[in-house]
Specification:
It contains 9 helices and 7 strands, in the order αβαβααβαβαααββαβ. By secondary structure, the protein is α+β, with helices and mostly antiparallel strands. It has a 5-stranded mixed β-sheet with strand order 4-6-5-3-7. A hairpin with a 2-residue loop joins strand 5 and strand 6. It is globular. Bound molecules: zinc ion (ZN). Zinc ion (ZN) binds next to strand 2 and helix 3.
Length: 243
């Protein structure tokens, strides 16, 4: 097995075409008659082969799966593989996560000063999340700042599933009721996982400027800890305004 093209696209897209370590741009423009170059490499966090850096015996689909890859420039790929003690599995995962969050934050739609306050409500079912995400033009996600690694991974995965469902919601809907039901079920599974980690999802929709001159629907989903949720909802309201 090799890395699927879907996994590749996902990795490049979420990395914003930049190295997760040094943030160098990975697609070089053409220079006159010289063609540009791709200097990005899909690096394995846990090596593909025994004896390779950070090798652990994992199933082949996991090895070439999204979670085991990090997008790096050629130089950093060499360095990371030459220094597995410095660039441990945990460190690489954390670097990847921080980088993807950095990309997401930069691409987040700017909120116009006059934007009306948005009311977000707890989203407790696959149905509720689906209704917020489907057909939106942009997505705004949020997560608690300091979480243990495994919980942060859980939150990242859940938000990604929510956004993915939103981004391909037209395709899913075109696939029929069953496809929509499957999507809602996938969302529900993420909600259950979050709930088991004592996390709640708040969400809503608002109109806002997505690009200059283009106003659209922005789907908002914020994962909050149960403590934050209590603070936000302390009396008398059962839902809370965000920004
Ligand atoms: Zn780099």
């Amino acid at each position: 097995m090799s890395i699927s093209s879907e996994t590749r696209k996902r990795l490049w897209a979420r990395s914003g075409n930049r190295c997760a370590l040094c943030r160098l741009e990975l697609v070089r423009d053409d220079q006159g008659s010289e063609p540009g170059a791709l200097i990005g490499q899909e690096a394995h966090i846990t090596a593909r082969n025994p004896g390779g850096p950070r090798y652990e015996p994992v199933p082949v689909d996991v090895r070439d799966g999204y979670a085991n890859l990090v997008l790096l420039c050629a130089n950093d790929h060499v360095q990371v593989d030459a220094q597995p003690e410095r660039y441990t599995v945990e460190r690489l995962r954390a670097l990847k996560r921080e980088h993807e969050t950095w990309v997401r934050d930069r691409l987040r739609p700017k909120t116009p000063a006059h934007a009306e306050a948005t009311r977000v409500v707890p989203l407790r079912s696959g149905d509720a999340v689906w209704n917020v995400m489907s057909g939106a033009h942009a997505y705004q996600t949020g997560a608690p700042g300091s979480l243990p690694d495994d919980v942060a991974d859980l939150v990242d995965d859940a938000l990604q599933v929510f956004v993915d469902c939103g981004e391909i919601s037209e395709d899913i809907t075109a696939g029929g009721l069953r496809a929509v039901r499957d999507a809602k079920r996938a969302i529900q599974a993420e909600l259950d996982a979050l709930a088991s980690a004592d996390l709640t999802v708040l969400g809503g929709r608002r109109r806002g400027e997505i690009a200059p001159g283009f106003t659209g629907d922005i789907a908002i989903v914020h994962v909050v800890t149960t403590d934050e949720f209590r603070t936000l909802t302390s009396p008398p309201e059962s839902d809370a305004p965000v920004q």
